[in-house]
Design brief:
The complex is a heterodimer of chains A (823) and B (394).
Chain A lengths: L12 E5 L10 H8 L4 E5 L5 H12 L14 E5 L2 H7 L1 H5 L4 E5 L12 H17 L6 E4 L6 E5 L3 H12 L3 E5 L14 E2 L4 E2 L2 E3 L8 E3 L11 E4 L2 E9 L2 E8 L13 H5 L12 E3 L8 E3 L9 H5 L12 E7 L1 E4 L3 E3 L15 E3 H16 L7 E8 L14 H15 L4 E6 L9 H10 L3 E4 L6 E2 L5 E7 L4 E5 L3 E6 L1 E3 L3 H8 L11 E3 L3 E5 L4 E3 L9 H20 L2 E4 L4 E2 L9 H5 L5 E5 L15 E5 L9 H5 L5 E2 L4 H12 L6 E6 L2 H11 L8 E6 L7 H9 L4 E6 L10 H18 L6 E5 L8 H12 L6 H11 L1 H4 L20
Helix pairs in contact in A: 1-5, 5-16, 6-13, 9-10, 10-11, 18-19
Chain B lengths: L11 H14 L7 H5 L9 H10 L3 H6 L11 H5 L6 H15 L6 H12 L6 H12 L10 H12 L14 H4 L1 E6 L3 H4 L1 H13 L2 E5 L24 E3 L2 H9 L4 E3 H11 L3 E5 L3 E5 L6 H15 L2 E2 L23 H13 L3 E3 L2 H14 L5 E3 H4 E5 L2 H6 L1
Parallel strand pairs in B: 1-2, 1-3, 3-4, 6-7, 6-8, 8-9
Antiparallel strand pairs in B: 5-10
Helix pairs in contact in B: 1-6, 7-8, 8-9, 14-15
The chains are: A alpha/beta (823), B alpha/beta (394).
Chain lengths: 823, 394
């Protein structure tokens, strides 16, 4: 090891690592000399060894690369393995504040190139130069502003109530807002539920209660002192920021106070029929342990008879609507789903006698059970039609997931009650994926339910009003005519009525089916597009109770983390330069996190000459900004500063392409594409030295200007590599990059210098193929033919698996942008 | 061992069109709603659903050879009911076009029969023979690569069937001696129309047939007529004048024979009775309820015997939907509009064997303002005494 030639200067210090002699195609003497032009160099054979790390610690104490000693802050550049690899090796030191700028001369250079020592060393020198001159912005630990320890839960069904109870147990204050007078939601009111075939009126117990579950009215979890319940309430407006929302809630009066003893006198004296069949204007419904009775505000005439007769004076007509404003740190949307409206299944004869929905059958089944006990059978033949208005482009395109199981549950119950009843299920597919679900299917078949694969287009009626169904028995490939006594439609579920309004109030996205869109379909199932706004249960799509319960617990933990975390480590937020911002809405519409708002430009703020006094100014909320750089790349005035500045980016492009004939420039995000390229490097999948890679925080950081600049500096081709299709970790970075690439394509075509430009979607599974992709793109860019020899070489590299396909025609694929994996 | 079909590579145009068709069908669930809805379903053994499946499986030959292609009436119901918004009807019509353009090497029995029937019907004594020939081809009893498979079938049928050709003169006795009484099931639609009811008896009498109307008939129970199963019980074969009755009684296990077929056959057998048409030409229509082949064959016979030209064109030859989809009139359908337009263009009345179709088509003609008469069989065909010259001539 050479000793540092430093003499107390603040020159950067390069830690050159030979990686235990594995970087054989690099001339380290020449590299050391080169790096020594700009920096002090410490050459080591194995920096991540125990000895090496001890030496690094000493350097830190001497004030290099971190804040430990901070005698003379000095930039440390580690030239060795990839950032991902190094970060794992130096975890402990980094935790103590070590800040290393990584120059990846291993996976990004030596391991992926051949034996041309001069060329490989030259590229390694460029990588080190680039890291010295244009380092990443230092990681920043951002601390959050204080967050209100209150959660507003919208929806008092199973999902919302359970999440609310759990949050209260965790020590947070919870305000539960329910539209109806009673808690429990749909599950509590629909009789038995699958897969357990018992009632849906229970919540899990807390540790303090016996048993595993308790009915709503017996469960003390919802009596928690930190759980406030607002019945007959809706969220009217939401303002503020994540962690500090002001939620305005409107509450309609119940008119019946807690004094009610449920004697029923009021209902006896009431003369008014409510809008719900069979109910008076003062009525009881689902008993959740607190509210017993309520008044139907739409039909009640406020005659006062019930109030006069009430023996405990529990009826108070003087109550009036009120508004409450709640300061909340987080909001949970748990509004559930409801049965699809009738227009989606009227084509199947709904509205006609002899046609009901599964929901209606639920209500009928109790009476039927009573008939069964008296030896009567209400109908002889019954046909259920699955996917009634669901999975249908003209109605509800989505699968409601519950209907198959509901049909199985009802069919099995019918066969149990009436073994002689003919029950046929016309289905498109039976979807029984879930714990214990398949048994229901098996039991139904055992019980003699007929499963007929095929769905009818309509239900006709003969002269006596009896349904006639003409349907193809698909598996038998013939048509059948069914003449049942009753047709039961398995209809789908749609979002709760008020969800659209609520999502607008909360400014969160909805998916194509109208449900709340979850942040990430694989990893973030309980978060919405709005920071601090969460979702659980059927509000994000129809779900069975087991999933609803799981999600309720999951979201409670998620919210707990959100409210209690102090901040996150990351790069600093982007900033708008008021002197250049013209107040267009490009950034605010492009920002995938809603972090940018347009505000009235303050008097004091500087402004570009063309902006009038009453112009707008874009402001970035540092709490919500994830520093992806999409706004900076798209700003038409280049008015947004990202922590990876344009100067640094242009500098990196220039440094990396310098002195290379026909360089091929690859911009890649350090997330999924970085994983693929890093792992490919570890496989030592080689590509030509002329390929120069530039790492970005997100592919969305790249703008047309950067691509054009690469072209100006002589690039023969430019590829952009981002996360897997539709899976950008910053949501829309890849689409932004694609637009920018298309702009660059037009500009270059207009200038008469078109270049091969491609955008790739990569993830870690692409480690096997990304090397080949780069090689093919390089060959295409520098003008080499995709020759049979090249194809032959690639086939050899594919290895043993390729042998079987040796006879297959190769060369049809040009490895273009549309080329999928495996090429 | 895999069977390699001899129908070798298709022209690129066919393969490309199949790729486009597959693209259009890619999102199919195979739910079978199209086949369930198909008004030709009674005869369409496998239906549009299966054709779509075969398209997706790349079974070009199986698709182009399918009889079902030629049973489609282009009524468009399949497209209307498709939950994935696939234009199934246009897929079928594109397939037919493809088969017409490139399918010369393929002998689809149905298509051949249809073509032969429409081109040569007036030259042929019996469409039944064509049917038989076509069936033989379909069952593989005749070499497919020989020219004119259907005609081969005709020849073979003529050799095999002693009564395939009109019998020699004098083989049957005179009408008077031959007079018979047939058990007749009138159903509901015909008795409702007194004039028509009388006409049926009158026409039958012309053929020397006395109709013994079952008094306990009632409704046949067909869903389109709105009833539960028929109360009618008989152990003999019954004659019907309505295809709905025909179908329902058959379903109930009775042997039901369309009266018109029996009358045509009778006239064909008898040297004393000849069929007379009320016009020089007619457009046949058999509707969706009747057994198409039998009904068409009988009409073809009637045409041949009466000397009236049967004007046919795909797909009006087929049993399309008159607009009621087997039930009550719901407005003119695409099929009925085309049938009526074709009839107007041919200046020929529509003659149908189905009384329900007659009413529905008349409604459609009124709705569409197309001035075409629509006749029920007995309103167009009647019996006259045979002139002796022709009988000696034979």
């Amino acid at each position: 090891m050479t000793s540092p030639n430093g003499n107390g200067s603040a020159r950067p210090l390069v830690l050159l690592c030979e990686c235990a002699g594995t970087l054989r195609n690099i001339d380290f003497d020449r590299l050391e000399t080169h790096a020594g032009l700009h920096a002090d160099v410490l050459r080591g054979n194995h920096w991540c060894s125990r000895v090496g790390q001890a030496q690094l610690l000493e350097l830190m104490d001497a004030g290099a690369g971190g804040e430990a000693g901070a005698r003379l802050p000095r930039q440390l550049v580690f030239a060795g393995c990839s950032p991902d690899f190094a970060a794992r090796r130096f975890t402990k030191l980094m935790a103590r504040g070590l800040q290393l700028e990584i120059a990846d001369i291993r996976e990004g250079c030596s391991w992926v190139h051949g034996d041309d020592v001069a060329a490989v060393t030259d590229k390694a020198a460029r990588i080190i130069d680039s890291s010295i001159a244009y380092p990443d912005a230092p990681a920043d630990t951002m601390s959050y502003a204080e967050r209100h320890d209150t959660v507003v839960v919208v929806g008092g069904g199973v999902a919302g109530t359970q999440a609310a109870a759990e949050l209260a147990q965790m020590g947070h204050h919870v305000e539960l807002v329910e539209r109806r007078p009673f808690l429990g939601g749909r599950a509590a009111r629909i009789g038995t539920v699958f897969p357990t075939n018992d009632c849906g009126q229970c919540l899990p117990t807390t540790d303090a209660q016996a048993g595993t579950r308790k009915c709503f009215h017996r469960n003390v979890a919802i009596d928690h002192p930190d759980l406030a319940i607002h019945r007959r309430s809706t969220v009217e407006a939401v303002t503020g920021h994540p962690g500090d929302f002001q939620v305005s809630v409107r509450t309609l009066p119940n008119m019946v106070t807690d004094a009610c003893v449920n004697c029923g006198t009021c209902e006896t004296v009431c003369d008014v029929e409510s809008s719900e069949p069979g109910k008076k204007a003062i009525f009881t419904e689902f008993y959740d342990g607190r509210v017993v009775r309520t008044v139907d505000l739409e039909t009640c005439t406020f005659c006062g008879k019930c109030a006069e007769e009430c023996p405990v004076e529990a009826i108070d007509f003087s109550q009036s609507p009120r508004r409450t404003t709640i300061h909340a740190g987080a909001i949970l949307t748990a509004t559930g789903c409801e049965p699809a409206p009738r227009e989606h299944y009227e084509y199947l004869g709904y509205g006609h006698d002899g046609v009901v929905t599964q929901v209606e059958l639920t209500d009928m089944l109790d009476d039927w059970a009573a008939q069964a006990s008296l030896g009567r059978m209400p109908v002889e033949e019954l046909v259920m039609i699955q996917c009634a208005g669901s999975r249908d482009q003209r109605h509800l395109p989505h699968c409601s997931r519950l209907c198959c199981m509901i049909a199985l549950k009802h069919a099995t119950r019918l066969k149990t009650l009436f073994p002689k009843m003919k029950v046929t299920i016309c289905y498109l597919e039976m979807r029984t994926a879930g714990v214990g679900y398949e048994n229901w299917f098996l039991d139904a078949r055992k019980a003699g339910v007929e499963f007929l694969r095929g769905t009818p287009p309509e239900v006709q009626f003969d002269g006596q009003g009896r349904p006639v169904i003409e349907v193809e028995d698909v598996t038998a490939a013939r048509k059948r005519v069914l003449r049942p006594d009753l047709v039961v439609l398995s209809t789908g579920m749609v979002p709760a009525t008020d969800l659209e309004k609520l999502t607008e109030t909360l400014t969160i996205d909805r998916d194509q089916d109208g449900f709340v869109e979850i942040l990430d379909r694989k990893n973030r199932a309980t978060e919405t597009s709005g920071e601090g706004i969460f979702v659980c249960g059927s509000a994000a799509g129809p779900k069975a109770l087991i999933e609803v319960n799981t999600e309720a617990s999951a979201v409670a933990s998620e919210i707990h983390n959100f409210l209690t975390s102090a901040g996150r480590r990351g790069t600093a937020a982007s900033q708008v330069d008021a002197a250049q911002c013209v107040g267009c809405d490009t950034c605010s519409t492009m920002c995938p996190f809603g972090a940018i708002t347009l505000v009235d430009r303050p008097e004091s703020a500087p402004r570009p000459a063309e902006v009038k006094d009453d112009g707008k100014l874009a402001v970035i909320d540092a709490q919500s900004c994830r520093a992806c750089g999409i706004c900076a790349a798209n700003c038409p005035e280049v008015a947004i500063a990202h922590n990876l500045s344009d100067d640094a980016l242009f500098g990196r492009i220039a440094t990396m392409t310098q002195g290379v004939e026909q360089p091929v420039v690859g911009f890649y995000c350090k997330e999924c594409a970085g994983a693929a390229i890093g792992l490919s490097g570890q496989r030592r999948d080689r590509y030509p030295e002329g390929v120069r890679l530039i790492e970005l925080p997100c592919l969305g950081r790249v703008s047309a200007l950067h691509i054009v600049e690469a072209a100006r500096l002589g690039a023969a081709g430019v590829f952009l590599a981002g996360c897997a299709e539709g899976r950008c970790q910053y949501r829309t970075g890849d689409t932004s990059a694609l637009e920018q690439m298309q702009i660059a394509e037009e500009v270059l075509a207009e200038a008469g210098t078109p270049l091969p430009l491609e955008l790739w979607h990569l993830c870690a599974v692409d480690r096997m193929s990304v090397g080949r992709r780069i090689r093919m793109f390089h060959a295409k860019s520098v003008g080499d033919d995709i020759s049979p020899e090249l194809i032959e070489r690639e086939m050899e590299l594919i290895g043993a698996g390729a042998g079987a396909l040796a006879g297959a025609p190769a060369g049809a694929c040009e490895g273009g942008g549309s080329c999928g994996r495996g090429h | 061992m895999a069977v390699v079909t001899e129908a070798g590579p298709y022209p690129p145009a066919v393969i490309e069109e199949f790729e486009r068709l597959a693209e259009a069908c890619r999102i199919c669930y195979q739910c079978g709603t199209c086949t369930s809805s198909c008004p030709s379903g009674r005869e369409l053994y496998r239906g549009p659903r299966r054709l779509v499946r075969l398209i997706l499986a790349g079974e070009i030959e199986a698709v182009l050879k399918s009889d079902d292609l030629w049973r489609c009436t282009e009524c468009g119901t399949c497209t209307e009911v498709c939950r994935m918004d696939i234009d199934v009807a246009s897929v079928l019509s594109r397939l037919r076009r493809l088969e017409r353009e490139h399918g010369t090497a393929i002998h689809c029995a149905e298509r051949t029969a249809a073509d032969v029937a429409s081109e040569h019907l007036h030259k042929r004594p019996r469409i039944d023979n064509l049917r038989f020939g076509a069936a033989m081809v379909a069952k593989g009893h005749l070499p497919k690569d020989k020219v004119g498979a259907a005609e081969m079938g005709v020849k073979l049928a003529l050799q095999m069937l002693p009564f395939g050709r009109k019998g020699p003169a004098g083989a049957a006795g005179p009408a008077g001696d031959d007079a018979v009484t047939l058990p007749f099931y009138a159903g509901c639609a015909i008795p409702q129309d007194h004039a028509l009811h009388g006409l049926v008896h009158e026409v039958a009498a012309g053929f020397g047939v006395r109709l013994d109307e079952a008094t306990d008939a009632g409704c046949c129970g067909h869903p389109s007529r709105g009833s539960v199963g028929s109360q009618f019980v008989s152990d003999a074969r019954v004659y019907t004048a309505c295809p709905a009755c025909d179908a329902s009684l058959e379903e109930a296990g009775l042997e039901a024979v369309p009266l018109w077929d029996a009358l045509t056959e009778r006239a064909g057998r008898s040297s004393q009775i000849a069929l007379q048409a009320a016009g020089p030409a007619f457009v046949p229509y058999v509707g969706c309820l009747a057994d198409r082949d039998t009904a068409l064959a009988a009409l073809g016979d009637a045409a041949a015997q009466s000397g009236a030209a049967m004007v046919v064109d795909y797909p009006t030859l087929h049993n399309g939907c008159c607009g009621a989809l087997g039930g009550m009139y719901r407005g003119a359908s695409k099929a009925s509009a085309r049938l009526l337009a074709f009839a107007a263009e041919s200046r020929a009345p529509v003659v149908t064997t189905c009384v329900l179709c007659r009413d529905n088509l008349r409604s459609a003609a009124r709705e569409l303002k197309i001035d075409v008469p629509v006749h029920f069989w007995p309103e167009f065909f009647t019996a006259v005494e045979h002139t002796p010259e022709e009988s000696t001539d034979d």
